[in-house]
Design brief:
The structure holds 2 protein chains of 2 kinds. By secondary structure, chain A is an alpha/beta fold. Chain A folds into 3 domains: 87 residues, 2-Layer Sandwich (Alpha-Beta Plaits); 140 residues, Succinyl-CoA synthetase domains (Rossmann fold, 3-Layer(aba) Sandwich), CATH 3.40.50; 185 residues, Rossmann fold. Chain A is built from 17 helices and 18 strands. In chain A, strands 8-7-10-9-11-12-13 form a 7-stranded mixed sheet, with helices on both faces. Chain A has a 5-stranded parallel sheet with strand order 15-14-16-17-18, sandwiched between helices. In chain A, helix 8 runs parallel beside helix 11, helix 9 packs parallel to helix 10 and helix 14 runs parallel beside helix 15. The longest helix of chain A is centred in the C-terminal third of the chain and has 20 residues. Chain B is built from 16 helices and 17 strands. Chain B is an alpha+beta fold. The radius of gyration of chain B is 23 Å and the shape is globular. The two termini of chain B are 36 Å apart. Chain B has 2 domains: 183 residues, v583 fold (Alpha-Beta Complex), CATH 3.90.1700; 211 residues, Alpha-Beta Complex (Enterococcus faecalis V583 fold), CATH 3.90.1710. Chain B has a 4-stranded antiparallel sheet with strand order 7-6-3-8. A 4-stranded antiparallel sheet of chain B has the order 11-10-9-13. The chains are: A alpha/beta, B alpha+beta. The interface between A and B is large, with 80 and 76 residues.
Chain lengths: 523, 470
C-alpha cells in the first residue's frame, strides 16, 4: 500500500464538487481510499487522521489537495491523473447545456470546436479574402482548395510554398473541381470509385476525363485540381508535382492521369520528370500538344476524350455510353449561302479551348474572346465573326452574373444573338452536369434551342445544333435523362467534346462542299 | 509530399453553402463556416490577421501571458491613501477611468466627478471655482490604468482618497481602487452635491481607518477564492456583487470586532457595507487588474489586458503592445432604466469595470448570474449562451472560476484579439448606466459589447511587432 498526493495551488472548488471528485477517484481501480479537499488546517487534520497524508503537510487553505491510498504506484498515478483532468477541465463542460442553442462556427478555428478532426478546407469566399482564409487553413494543417478567383499570382506562390513546407495540398486558386476519396469538392461529377488518379490544371478537363472513365466502367481514386495557373513559369507546377507524387504513393491509385493546357517547356520537363518516377502507368494530356517523349510508362494523348479512351483501354474496358442517335442528318441543301459558320457557346473553359484546337485544325482560324492565338481575339466579346467559339464561363462574362453552369441566362442570350446572325449555320454547345451545377440544364438548353429556331425560322433559316453532355448516370441530373431531353429536340448529341467538335467541323465542311463542290474541283 | 487523407474528408467550408450540402449528400462530412469578411471588410487587416492565426510566436506568448494571469494571486492586505501609495499622486493629480482624455473632451459625469473631487480635496471652495481650475490646466489628469489603478464609472481617484491595496503575491505587482460609495447620488456617477462630499469625508475619516484595523486582524484576504465562491452564489462580480459583499463583510466584521475600533465606527462600517450590494466591486476590479497586469507586456501576445471606457471612447490594451491604447467611440448601453429615465438620458459606456470581463468575470461569467440578463429582458438560457459564446474569443478558461449552471465549466478568460476579429463575436460587458449630465448619478444598468474597431486596430501593430517591422 502506498500514499500519493497532488496540491493544486490557489485552486478553489466547492465542497460538493470535491466530494463528487473524491468518490470518483476512490472508485478507480486499485484505489483503497481517496480524498479531494481544500487544504484548510481542519481538512488536513482529517485527511491525516485517515492516513491519507502525513501530518504537517505544507499547503495553504486556498490550495486544493487530492490524496490517494493505492495498491500500487500505477493505480495511484492514474487516479491522480484522472483528478488533474477533472480539475483542469474543461472546455467541454457545459456543452450539453448548449446543444439547443448551438452557434454556427464563424471562423475556421471555430470549426474545430465542432469537428476536431477537420482535415480539409474549401474556400469560395470573395477573392480578396480567399488568400487570408487559405493561409489560416494551411496554418491549421488543413489541405486547402481555393475555388475563388481573383487571387494574385504572388499570393498563389506564397501559399503553395507554405503548403509545400507543411506537406499539404494547396489546390487553386480558381480550382473549380476535385474529388477526394469520393467526396466532390466544388463542381464535380458523381463518379465510380476506382483506381485511376487524376491531377488536372483544368476544371472541366478533369470533369470530362473522370466522367468518361466512370461511364466507361472505370473508377476514380482521387481527382486533384491545381488551378489554371499552376503550370505557369511563375508557379512552376508546384501543385501538379505534389499531386503526381501523392498519387504515386497512394495505394488505391494504380493509373495516373495528368491534364493541362500545354505548359512552357521548362515546366513541362519538370512535370514529365516527376511523372516518370511514379512507377505507375501515367497518361499525360497537354491539350492539343504534339506527342511528347518520355521514359517509363508515359502515354500521351491530345484530347480529353482520347485520354479517357486510352485509360479505359489500359483497364481493358471498352464499353462506353453509346453515342446517341446523332439527330436526323441535316439536309444541307436547305441552308442559305451565307450560312457558313460554327458558333460555339461554351460554359466550360477547357471545352472551349479544345474545340478551338479541333476546329482550327479542320477549318482554319477560329475567333474567340479566349483565343488560342492572340491575333484571333475578338475586339469585343459580344461580337460574332466567322467561326466563333466563346467561353461564357470566363471571368469577363461572370463578373456580377452567375456562372452559366449554374444559371443558363447568359447562354440563352448568346444563343439568340447567334440565331439572329444570318451567317450562323451551326451552334456548338456543352452541358456540364454534376454537384453544384444547374439541376436541369437540358431543359433550359431546349428552351433556348426552340426560341433560336423560331428566330431563324422567321428569316427562313434553319439551324443545326451539336452538343454533348459531360456527366455520369450517378450525377444528380442523370446523364441519360439529360440526353433524352435533348434528343427530343432533334439535336445532334455526341459523347464528348472532341466528338462534338469533329462533328461540327465535318458539317461545316459538307456545307461548303454542297455549295462549292469538293475542294479538289473534280466534281 | 502530402498524404492523401486515408480517413474520410472532414471539410471546413468557407463561402458557398451549397458546396457543404453537396459534400454531405455524397456522404462526406462538412462544416459550413458562417463566414463574414474579417476585419470589417478590410482586406489588409484580414491578411495581417491570417498571419497571426495559429502563429507559433503568438501562441507561445499567449501561453506565457495566460499562465501569468491564471497563476496570479490577488490579496487585499491593507487600505492606503492615494497620495501615499499610488505612484506620482503628489500635487493636484486626478486619475480617471479609461484611456487618457483631455478635460475639454470629457463627458458630463466625469467632469462632475472631477469637480466634486476638486472641492473634496479643498483645492477649490465651489464647483464653479473648480471648473475654472480644470479649464486653466491647474489639475493634472491621467488614466487610472497608467498608475496601477482602476475606478468604476468615472473612476475618479484624488490624492486624499483611501484606496484598497491589492497585491499579487505570485508576481509582486499591486493594484489600487477607491472604496465603493454605494448607489444613488455618488461621485463615480458624476454627482457632486454636499451629501456626496460629506460621504467621501466620512469614508476617509471613519470607514477607511475602521476597515484598516479590521484588515489588521483578519490578515490578508485572498480574493480569488472569495470570487470563486461568489460565482457559486449568483454573482458575476461586476453588476452583481451581493454575495461577494456579504462574504467580505463576514470576514471584516470579525476583524473589526477584534480590533480597537470604536463600537460606533464598527456599527456604521457594518451597516454601510450591508446596505451596499456593490461594495465588493471595488475589490473585484483591482483583483482583476492585478491578475491582468501580471500578463501585460508579453511580447507577441494577443491577449487583451484591459478594456476600459472614459465615457467618450472605449479603450483596449493588449499584452504584446503594452504602451498603446486602441480606442473607438463608446457605445450607449442597452438596458433597464430607473423610473423616469430612458436611453436618451444615458451617458455613453463609462468606467474601468470592464476589467472584470477582461479577467473572465462579469459578462463572461454571466451563466453564474442569470439575474443579470434580466437587464436586457433575457432568460437564463441567454446567460448560458453568452458565457459559452465567450469561449470562442478567449485563449483559455479560468479553472478557478467555475460556472455552476454550465456543469461547473471554467469561465472563458483571456480575450484574444485575433479570435474577436476572426469570428466577429464581441466581448460582452455588463455595466451600470450613468446620466449624461453631471451630478444626476446612476439611471440604470444593462449589457453592451466592446466595439470591434478597438480589436481591429490592434491587428496590424501586433503583426508588425512580431515581423520586425514598425
Amino acid at each position: 500500500m502506498l500514499k500519493k498526493f497532488i496540491v493544486k495551488k490557489n485552486h478553489y472548488s466547492d465542497s460538493v464538487a470535491l466530494m463528487k471528485l473524491s468518490a470518483e477517484i476512490e472508485s478507480a481501480p486499485g484505489i483503497l481510499q481517496a480524498t479531494a479537499i481544500m487544504s484548510t488546517p481542519a481538512n488536513i487534520e482529517i485527511a491525516a487522521a485517515a492516513g491519507l497524508v502525513d501530518e504537517g503537510l505544507q499547503a495553504r487553505p486556498t490550495d486544493l489537495l487530492v490524496a490517494v491510498c493505492a495498491d500500487n504506484e500505477k493505480a495511484a498515478e492514474e487516479a491522480l491523473e484522472l483528478a488533474q483532468g477533472r480539475l483542469n477541465n474543461s472546455a467541454s463542460r457545459g456543452v450539453a447545456a448548449s446543444q439547443s442553442r448551438k452557434m454556427r462556427p464563424k471562423s475556421i478555428q471555430m470549426g474545430f470546436a465542432e469537428q476536431p478532426d477537420l482535415n480539409f478546407a474549401l474556400i469560395s469566399c470573395p477573392g480578396e479574402f480567399a488568400a487570408a482564409e487559405a493561409e489560416k487553413a494551411l496554418n491549421f494543417g488543413l489541405h486547402t482548395m481555393i475555388f475563388s478567383d481573383n487571387v494574385s499570382i504572388a499570393d498563389e506562390l506564397r501559399l503553395k510554398q507554405l503548403a509545400l513546407e507543411k506537406d499539404l495540398f494547396m489546390m487553386g486558386p480558381d480550382c473549380g473541381t476535385a474529388i477526394i476519396s469520393g467526396v466532390p469538392l466544388g463542381f464535380a461529377n458523381a463518379v465510380n470509385k476506382g483506381n485511376v488518379g487524376v491531377v488536372a490544371a483544368s476544371g472541366t478537363g478533369l470533369q470530362q476525363v473522370t466522367s468518361l472513365i466512370s461511364q466507361g466502367g472505370g473508377g476514380i481514386s482521387h481527382a486533384l485540381g491545381t488551378g489554371g495557373r499552376d503550370l505557369s513559369t511563375d508557379i512552376g507546377g508546384i501543385s501538379m508535382c505534389q499531386g503526381i507524387e501523392a498519387l504515386a504513393a497512394d495505394k488505391n491509385t494504380e493509373i495516373i492521369v495528368i491534364i493541362s493546357k500545354p505548359p512552357s517547356e521548362e515546366v513541362a520537363e519538370k512535370v514529365v520528370a516527376t511523372a516518370e518516377k511514379t512507377g505507375k502507368p501515367t497518361f499525360i494530356c497537354f491539350l492539343g500538344a504534339e506527342k511528347g517523349t518520355g521514359k517509363g510508362e508515359l502515354v500521351y494523348a491530345a484530347s480529353l476524350a482520347e485520354t479517357a479512351e486510352k485509360v479505359l483501354g489500359k483497364l481493358a474496358l471498352g464499353a462506353r455510353t453509346p453515342a446517341s442517335n446523332n439527330g436526323s442528318p441535316p439536309d444541307l441543301k436547305d441552308f442559305r449561302d451565307e450560312q457558313e459558320f460554327i458558333r460555339g457557346v461554351y460554359s466550360g473553359g477547357t471545352f472551349c479551348y479544345e474545340a478551338q484546337i479541333i476546329l482550327r485544325d479542320a477549318l482554319g482560324p477560329v475567333w474567340s474572346s479566349t483565343p488560342l492565338d492572340k491575333s484571333y481575339k475578338l475586339a469585343d466579346s459580344m461580337m460574332i465573326r466567322e467561326h466563333t467559339v466563346i467561353d461564357l464561363g470566363d471571368d469577363e462574362f461572370t463578373h456580377g452574373r452567375p456562372h452559366p453552369m449554374i444559371d443558363h441566362r447568359s447562354r440563352h442570350e448568346r444563343i439568340l444573338q447567334e440565331a439572329e446572325d444570318p451567317t450562323t449555320a451551326l451552334i456548338l454547345f456543352d452541358i456540364v452536369l454534376g454537384y453544384g451545377a444547374n439541376p436541369d440544364p437540358a431543359a433550359d438548353m431546349c428552351a433556348s434551342i426552340k426560341e433560336a429556331r423560331e428566330v431563324a425560322g422567321r428569316d427562313n433559316r434553319q439551324l443545326i445544333f451539336v452538343g454533348f453532355v459531360c456527366g455520369t448516370d450517378h450525377d444528380p441530373q442523370n446523364l441519360r435523362e439529360q440526353i433524352q431531353i435533348l434528343e427530343q429536340m432533334d439535336v445532334i448529341i455526341e459523347e464528348h467534346n472532341a466528338a462534338a467538335s469533329y462533328r461540327a467541323a465535318s458539317i461545316a465542311k459538307s456545307l461548303k462542299e454542297v455549295r462549292f463542290g469538293k475542294p479538289d474541283g473534280r466534281d | 509530399m502530402p498524404d492523401l487523407p486515408r480517413e474520410s474528408l472532414k471539410v471546413a467550408n468557407v463561402g458557398l453553402e451549397f458546396f457543404s450540402e453537396n459534400i454531405e449528400t455524397a456522404g462526406g462530412s462538412a462544416i459550413h463556416v458562417d463566414w463574414k469578411p474579417p476585419g470589417d471588410g478590410d482586406a489588409d487587416t484580414a491578411r495581417a490577421l491570417a498571419a497571426l492565426i495559429n502563429n507559433p510566436i503568438v501562441e507561445a506568448a499567449n501561453e506565457v501571458a495566460f499562465d501569468r494571469y491564471h497563476s496570479a494571486n490577488p490579496v487585499v492586505d491593507s487600505i492606503g491613501r492615494a497620495r501615499d501609495d499610488i505612484p506620482g499622486m503628489d500635487g493636484r493629480t486626478i486619475l480617471h477611468a479609461g484611456a487618457p482624455v483631455a478635460w475639454k473632451d470629457m463627458c458630463g459625469p466625469m467632469k462632475g466627478a472631477i469637480l466634486g473631487a476638486t472641492v473634496y480635496e479643498g483645492w477649490a471652495q465651489t464647483l464653479a471655482e473648480a471648473e475654472k481650475m480644470a479649464e486653466n490646466g491647474e489639475i493634472t489628469f491621467d488614466s487610472c490604468h497608467h498608475r496601477n489603478a482602476v475606478g468604476p464609472m468615472a473612476g475618479i481617484i484624488s490624492p486624499s482618497m483611501p484606496v484598497w491595496k491589492v497585491t499579487n503575491t505570485e508576481h509582486g505587482n499591486i493594484a489600487y481602487c477607491t472604496l465603493n460609495e454605494g448607489l444613488g447620488k455618488v461621485l463615480r456617477f458624476g454627482a457632486n452635491s454636499e451629501e456626496v462630499l460629506k460621504r467621501l469625508n466620512w469614508m476617509e475619516k471613519v470607514l477607511a481607518p475602521t476597515l484598516a484595523s479590521a484588515l489588521d486582524n483578519t490578515g490578508p484576504i485572498e480574493l480569488k477564492p472569495l470570487i470563486a465562491q461568489a460565482l457559486q452564489m449568483g454573482d458575476e462580480v461586476h453588476n452583481r456583487n451581493a454575495a461577494a459583499s456579504s462574504l467580505l463583510l463576514k470576514k471584516l466584521i470579525i476583524g473589526a470586532l477584534e480590533s480597537d475600533a470604536a463600537q460606533n465606527d464598527i456599527k456604521s462600517m457594518a451597516s454601510f457595507i450591508a446596505g451596499n450590494d456593490h461594495f465588493f466591486l471595488n475589490l473585484s476590479m483591482p483583483a482583476c487588474k492585478c491578475m491582468l497586469d501580471a500578463a501585460h507586456g508579453v511580447a507577441g501576445s494577443s491577449m487583451v489586458t484591459a478594456m476600459a471606457r472614459n465615457g467618450v471612447m472605449f479603450g483596449v490594451r493588449v499584452s504584446g503592445l503594452p504602451d498603446m491604447w486602441f480606442t473607438s467611440p463608446a457605445p450607449v448601453v442597452d438596458g433597464l432604466f430607473f423610473p423616469g429615465y430612458s436611453r436618451d438620458d444615458a451617458a455613453a459606456d463609462i468606467g474601468d469595470s470592464a476589467i472584470t470581463e477582461t479577467a473572465g468575470l462579469g459578462g463572461f461569467a454571466m451563466a453564474a448570474s442569470p439575474a443579470i440578463v434580466q437587464f436586457v429582458g433575457g432568460s437564463p438560457a441567454d446567460a448560458l449562451a453568452q458565457s459559452l459564446a465567450m469561449r470562442h474569443i478567449t485563449i483559455g478558461a479560468n479553472s478557478q472560476f467555475t460556472l455552476p449552471s454550465l456543469d461547473f465549466a471554467p469561465s472563458a478568460a483571456g480575450i484574444d484579439i485575433r479570435k474577436v476579429v476572426d469570428t466577429g463575436i464581441l466581448p460582452t460587458v455588463n455595466t451600470g448606466i450613468a446620466h449624461k449630465q453631471a451630478g444626476v448619478g446612476q439611471i440604470g444598468a444593462g449589457i453592451t459589447s466592446a466595439p470591434l474597431d478597438c480589436f481591429l486596430q490592434a491587428v496590424e501593430p501586433l503583426h508588425n511587432s512580431i515581423s520586425g517591422n514598425s
